[in-house]
Specification:
The protein has one domain: Copper homeostasis (CutC) domain (TIM Barrel, Alpha-Beta Barrel). Helices cover 38% and strands 17% of the residues. It has eight helices and ten strands. The strands form two sheets. An eight-stranded parallel beta sheet has the order 7-6-5-4-3-2-1-8, with helices on one face. The chain has a two-stranded antiparallel sheet with strand order 9-10. Strand 4, helix 4 and strand 5 form a beta-alpha-beta unit.
Length: 248
Amino acid sequence: MIDNLKLEICAFHIDTCVIAERCGADRVELCDNPVEGGTTPSYGAIKQAREKISIQLYPIIRPRAGNFFYSDEEFAMMRDDIEICRQLGCDGISVGISKLNGEIDIERFKQIVEWAGPMGVTCNRVIDNAPDIFKALEDIISCGCERVLTSGHKTAAPEATEILQQMVLQAGNRIIIMPGAGVKSSNIAALRNATGANEFHSSARKIAPNPVTYINEAVSDYGHVYIADETEVRAMVDALKISHSQIR
């Protein structure tokens, strides 16, 4: 985008990937299962996304929803999914793994980073489930991750500006702190000014119109398709541009 300012869009649909690139975003975190926070997308979704966009593509590696403590079988699934991402030409992955006590599993995380190489590794919001976010940040740095996605131990990043600022100062040049959750065009500039962060994460999502003419309303698990609001993504990109020019 501008110098070191970057916007990452969380995409739950191939159309969102295209919207993100068209609007000037820098990276896509590709996910499935928006209702439960995002899980590993399918082979076909990753392949389609890689073929359709040239900006950075980071699929999430998360075999299921819920906690970030994984069984041996789930850990093996993650290894295979990482290999698929490499074969399909992804730039990196978004991933996290913890111990039973919620602390970062350093040994297993280092293994994940090794499996991912030469792709980059973003630590996902496992850090927001750690008992001590500042200790967890040091653990993540020691694992070799390039950035960490975090809401600052709160429901949404705008509620945690003080903590996020502390994390940015603690990280220095060792890792990128990327605030996410609740990031919008209406608050992204203020969030940047308050925290000193240079990368931001948002889904900017809305429910896509349903073209199907018959819907059985008695079915409770029909669900929705979510795509990015193109106007909102453009507005976030523009807000960061204005913030950059004002600070300069």
